[in-house]
Amino acid sequence: MIRRLFANLEELLSVVLVTALCGIVTLQVFCRLVLRMPLSWTEEASIIVFVWMTMIGSSLALKRGEHFAVELLHRRLPPPLRRATGVLVGLILVAFSLLLVYEGVLMGWRNVHVITPAMEISRSIPYSAVAGGGLFMLVRSIEITLRRIRGEQPNNGGAAA
Q1: pTM of the predicted model as reported, rounded to 2 decimal places
Q2: 47 near 126, Cβ under 8 Å?
């Protein structure tokens, strides 16, 4: 049960975030056009949800191997060198994910006391999406790299990235 939840965590969060975004936007349209009383917080909330959705979606794309990759050279390499380059790319992804986590934590920390104008919440919430997405990407890139080290095909269909 927990393994299945972990395997589908990005999908689950994406469904929740897309549903929330649709609900917020629908509420704003209804209030503005039908009730003629627009809400002040919906634009800000939809931006925050969209930022989180983008970062979680980046991890989902990494997990599925749907990020842009140039495979022309990779496919022409002999299998041992192909495996080595796959591991190298995985390690670069791990390093990049660590950088996202680090910089995201710094951005979130710097904005803890900055308050958003409409919702009056800490601006660290949207900025921490960088760290949150980086953390998801870190877990997935470690998972992919370990599979490549063991010589297994990653779940993403074997894309180079």
Answers
A1: 0.86
A2: yes
